[in-house]
């Protein structure tokens, strides 16, 4: 059975899959990821993944950490980078979302571009401003293998499969009891623990099992890593200069100069600080999972299955100390602390709250509670036809409590003299407590899924049996959320928002063996054609049809050539349609140096609309195709070589304009989103007023001259379909296994190389090669677009002992960090002598080691039977990622905003010891 399944999957370029131990004895009972027909591999598809051995050797404590080791996977699955508190509305919950192919918009859209399944069915999502599937709700103890389709899969699975499909396949039965425990420890006191117990029993007609696992880890801060810094360049001499201006010790600006509160003049360096030391880089976390399953043959032809899960996850995140800039007038009781400053005018005081609050006040606790049950019936109706019915229901609740600094309360306390901005520690304790607010947010997701599928043979051809599958599906995603109103200093809880999305679907697949055992000839061992199509009808945006064609050709029994073409889509999620939870922003700006057309020099304002979505919001779509081969040379038994070329056209990307983009940049690249307030028509003004309430009225006073309040421009930054992308690349792998007299050894390498990454930021913008110039729409203009990621391993097995070394490589960049021009006119250029320029960024490599010893037959007694000891050493050489300089100087020598970026991030050298015992 195992050898048959391995052969079945080999034609699909399975890099790292071991065969499962299934309850059935017939290959025709197997439904491989990428098809809905039993016993048939997905024609033309590139399938990668992990075996149970790979899961153990990875040292991963959960499935997200496991997926982070796959070269085709991008995203922050460890929750380490950028997972601190997001401003004062932490609704972009600390929920790492798996993303294949690094498609743009994966972190800006509300839904996921990669479909995550468990045993072929969808998982319940969680989130508030964004929703996604957290793979950590599945116990890693139960995972038998992971199958990953790196091509679009909407013709089979519907929405969210534009970047591919990940399917976690769990054990079908569990006979006995197994307990596991692991402890990790690393530099600067990092510790993590995880363990669990699973047990079950099987009988002639069924089985039952249950598993519970627990995991926790410590928080890590910037001070725990030598390479975490936030530095730009000193304009005077280009020396490193911290970018923080709101420091532990207050600084005072008056008359264009900087001073300490005592009146001592300060240099530029003395007014700056690096606050990354106290910023959270890895959140503290606790995870409880419970998974269970039941199988029973009701008759010889009818089987009932039930799967269920419950997960409770809590995350505590902290960011850098919360800073503040205040204007203090001479009449203030704390004015200048009695120091002798040159004038008697208003003073600008910059400070943070770290002297009175542990790690500042910007911190949040996030909890995600989810449960799901999935009963199914399988009916063998005869003549090798089978009908499968599935019902799946799940609910999740996501809660965020974010302790925040309320700006109006701080200003009121400063004006009253109870909060001293020059020396925060001397402030009145009551005032310090009174400036804090609690931002509370909650999101609820409900998933209902009903699916009916029938598959079986049609008729025999000389090449084999034509098989088909047809089915229908109904799914409802009901989402609601309730948020604190952070624009109100009392932080009231707003009204509950809800949105339900439903979809009715029909689908089918046809598998035609044109050539096979009955009509093969020279250089035509087999030729398999598969055609799939799916019709989805949504209650909100209408219907869509997505086809797929796959071909697998074997000229010999040791060479497979495959290719596929298909269209996929991602429907706008309920959170996309409701829009981001960020409040509409009124921000001062200085267009034209603050001088307006009527001669007024009053502060001008820009309104940024962010709190909804443009309707109608259409699905984003892709056209995917790929070609590849799998070579098993007969002269080298045990060797498999694979390669695939992929092509993805992404259209109508769902996102906002990148947060942090300058107003001038938005006006250049997205002119259709930038409205000059003086040219607003009455209809446009009313439309914007409807979105902002009376907020626009407070700042836009038509006909008043000179104007005391004015909106200079309105930026429509609501979520929308915006931009197109073209991504092409190569996947490759080589795998070798060799038996010896003393045991066996094996080696493998797999990776992905990006050939093209072009983006059209808007319909009015030109196409830009993101591999050659920096992304003009990114918040971080020094954004890296790496080309190569790969993983290589070498392992040895001798009796009860297994050792494996794994090398992970992330690509560097050469001559890619200087451009001239702005917006759509950016081009690569040779930097002038005064430019901030980084010639290259070194590739980033880590070495991991894994050792396992089974104590069976060790001579230490019966208690050692079915006992294994493991040791993982991650990042053996304690490799640190390279520092990336993201700032630059223009041709006039003026310093731009920016600092050091991080090219990857890790926890340094980490040791993990584990033990597992079967009873």
Quick structural overview:
The chain is mainly beta and 919 residues long.
Description:
The chain has 919 residues and is mainly beta. It has 10 helices and 52 strands. The strands form 12 sheets. It has a 22-stranded antiparallel β-barrel. The longest helix has 11 residues, at 682-692. The chain is globular and about 100 Å long. The two termini are 26 Å apart. The model is unreliable at 1-27, 76-92, 588-602, 774-784, 815-837 and 886-903 (pLDDT under 50).
The counted number of beta strands is 52
C-alpha-based Rg, rounded: 30 Å
- The rounded distance between the terminal residues' Cα atoms is 26 Å
Shape: globular
Low-confidence blocks of residues? 1-27, 76-92, 588-602, 774-784, 815-837, 886-903
Estimate the strand proportion.
over 45%
Structural class: mainly beta
Determine the oligomeric state from the structure: single chain
Number of helices: 10
Percentage of helical residues? under 10%
Strand count, sense and closure of the main sheet?
A: 22 strands, antiparallel, barrel
Average residue-wise pLDDT: 79
Labels describing this entry:
10 helices, 22-stranded antiparallel β-barrel, 919 residues, 52 strands, globular, mainly beta, 5-stranded mixed sheet, disordered N terminus
Topology of this structure?
Layout: H1 2-10, E1 47-50, H2 52-58, H3 63-67, E2 73-74, E3 99-100, E4 115-118, E5 121-122, E6 126-127, E7 131-132, E8 143-149, H4 154-157, E9 165-170, E10 176-186, E11 191-203, E12 206-217, E13 220-221, E14 231-233, E15 240-242, E16 251-254, E17 257-259, E18 280-282, E19 284-297, E20 302-318, E21 323-328, E22 347-352, E23 363-382, E24 385-405, H5 407-416, H6 429-434, E25 436-461, E26 464-483, E27 497-515, E28 526-538, E29 542-556, E30 559-570, H7 574-578, E31 585-589, E32 604-609, E33 620-631, E34 639-651, E35 654-655, H8 663-669, E36 674-676, H9 682-692, H10 695-699, E37 711-716, E38 720-721, E39 724-739, E40 744-760, E41 767-769, E42 788-798, E43 801-810, E44 813-814, E45 819-820, E46 827-828, E47 840-841, E48 844-854, E49 867-874, E50 883-885, E51 900-902, E52 910-918
Parallel strand pairs: 4-9, 32-37
Antiparallel strand pairs: 1-8, 2-3, 4-5, 6-7, 8-9, 10-11, 10-52, 11-12, 12-19, 13-18, 14-15, 16-17, 16-22, 19-20, 20-23, 21-22, 23-24, 24-25, 25-26, 26-27, 27-28, 28-29, 29-30, 30-33, 31-32, 33-34, 34-39, 35-38, 36-37, 39-40, 40-41, 40-42, 42-43, 43-48, 44-47, 45-46, 48-49, 49-52, 50-51
């Amino acid at each position: 059975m195992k050898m048959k399944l391995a052969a079945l999957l080999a034609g699909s370029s399975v890099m790292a899959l071991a065969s499962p131990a299934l309850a059935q004895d017939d290959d025709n009972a197997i439904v491989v990821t990428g098809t809905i027909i039993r016993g048939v591999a997905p024609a033309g598809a590139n399938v990668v993944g992990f075996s149970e051995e790979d899961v153990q050797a990875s040292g991963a404590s959960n499935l997200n950490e496991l997926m982070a080791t796959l070269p085709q996977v991008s995203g922050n699955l460890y929750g380490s980078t950028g997972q601190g508190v997001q401003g004062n509305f932490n609704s972009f919950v600390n929920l790492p979302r798996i993303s294949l192919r690094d498609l743009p918009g994966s972190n800006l859209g509300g839904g996921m571009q990669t479909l995550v399944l468990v045993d072929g069915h969808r998982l319940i999502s969680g989130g508030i401003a964004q929703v996604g599937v957290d793979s950590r709700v599945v116990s890693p103890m139960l995972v038998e293998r992971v199958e990953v389709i790196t091509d679009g899969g909407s013709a089979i699975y519907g929405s969210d499969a534009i970047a591919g499909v990940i399917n976690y396949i769990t054990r079908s039965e569990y006979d006995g009891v197994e307990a596991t425990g692991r402890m990790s420890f690393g530099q600067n006191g990092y510790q993590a623990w995880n363990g669990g117990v699973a047990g079950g029993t099987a009988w002639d007609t069924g089985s039952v099992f249950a598993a519970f696992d627990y995991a926790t880890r410590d928080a890590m801060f910037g001070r725990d890593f030598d390479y975490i810094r936030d530095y730009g360049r000193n304009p005077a001499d280009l020396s490193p200069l911290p970018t923080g201006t709101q420091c532990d010790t207050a600084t005072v600006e008056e008359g264009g100069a900087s001073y300490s509160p005592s009146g001592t003049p300060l240099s530029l360096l003395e007014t700056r600080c690096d606050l990354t030391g106290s910023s959270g880089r890895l959140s503290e976390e606790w995870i409880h999972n419970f998974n269970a399953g039941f199988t029973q043959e009701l008759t010889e032809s009818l089987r009932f299955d039930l799967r269920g899960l419950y997960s409770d996850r809590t995350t505590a995140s902290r960011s850098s100390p919360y800073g503040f800039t205040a204007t203090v007038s001479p009449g203030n009781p704390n004015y200048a602390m009695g120091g002798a400053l040159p004038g008697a005018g208003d003073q600008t005081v910059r400070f943070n709250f770290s002297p009175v609050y542990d790690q500042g006040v910007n911190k949040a606790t996030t909890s995600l509670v989810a449960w799901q049950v999935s009963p199914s019936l399988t009916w063998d109706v005869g003549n090798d036809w089978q009908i499968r019915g599935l019902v799946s229901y799940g609910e999740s609740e996501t809660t965020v409590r974010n302790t925040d600094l309320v700006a109006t309360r701080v200003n009121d306390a400063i004006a009253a003299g109870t909060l001293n901005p020059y020396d925060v520690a001397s402030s009145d304790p009551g005032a310090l407590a009174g400036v804090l607010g609690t931002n509370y947010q909650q999101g609820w997701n409900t998933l209902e899924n009903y699916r009916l599928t029938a598959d079986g043979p049609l008729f025999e051809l000389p090449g084999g049996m034509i098989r088909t599958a047809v089915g229908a599906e109904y799914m409802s995603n009901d989402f609601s959320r309730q948020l604190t109103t952070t624009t109100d200093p009392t932080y009231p809880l707003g009204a509950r928002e809800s949105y339900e999305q439903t979809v009715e679907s029909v689908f089918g697949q046809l598998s035609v063996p044109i050539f096979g055992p009955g009509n093969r000839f020279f250089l035509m061992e087999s030729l398999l054609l598969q055609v799939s199509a799916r019709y989805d009808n949504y209650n909100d945006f209408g219907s869509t049809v997505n086809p797929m064609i796959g071909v697998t050709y074997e000229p010999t029994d040791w060479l497979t050539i495959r290719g596929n073409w298909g269209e996929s889509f991602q429907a706008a999620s309920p959170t996309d349609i409701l829009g981001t939870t960020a409040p509409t922003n009124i921000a001062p700006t200085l267009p034209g140096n603050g001088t307006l057309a009527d001669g007024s020099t009053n502060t001008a304002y820009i309104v940024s609309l962010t709190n909804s979505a443009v309707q109608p919001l259409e699905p984003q779509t892709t056209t995917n195709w790929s070609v590849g081969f799998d070579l098993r040379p007969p002269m080298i038994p045990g060797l498999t070589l694979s390669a695939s070329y992929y092509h993805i056209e992404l259209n109508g990307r769902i996102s906002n304009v990148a947060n942090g983009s300058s107003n001038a940049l938005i006006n250049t690249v997205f002119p259709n989103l930038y409205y000059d307030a003086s040219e607003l028509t009455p209809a446009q003004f009313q439309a914007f007023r409807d979105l902002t309430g009376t907020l626009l009225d407070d700042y836009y006073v038509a006909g008043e001259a000179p104007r005391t309040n004015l909106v200079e421009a309105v930026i429509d930054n609501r979520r929308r379909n915006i931009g197109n992308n073209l991504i092409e690349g190569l996947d490759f792998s080589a795998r070798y296994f060799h038996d010896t007299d003393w045991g066996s050894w094996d080696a493998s390498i797999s990776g992905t190389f990006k050939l093209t990454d072009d983006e059209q930021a808007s319909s009015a913008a030109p196409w830009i090669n993101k591999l050659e110039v920096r992304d003009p729409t990114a918040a971080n203009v020094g954004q890296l677009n790496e080309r190569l990621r790969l993983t290589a391993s070498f392992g040895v097995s001798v009796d009860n002992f297994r050792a494996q070394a794994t090398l992970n490589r992330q690509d560097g960049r050469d001559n890619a960090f200087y451009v001239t021009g702005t917006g759509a006119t950016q081009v690569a250029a040779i930097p002038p002598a005064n430019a901030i320029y980084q010639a290259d960024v070194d590739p980033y490599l880590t070495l991991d080691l894994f050792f396992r010893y089974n104590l069976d037959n060790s001579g230490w007694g019966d208690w050692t039977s079915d006992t294994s000891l493991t040791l993982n050493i991650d990042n053996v050489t304690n490799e640190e990622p390279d520092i990336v300089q993201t700032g630059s100087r223009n041709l006039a020598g003026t310093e731009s905003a920016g600092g050091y970026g991080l090219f990857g991030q890790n926890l340094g050298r980490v040791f993990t010891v584990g033990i597992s015992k079967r009873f």
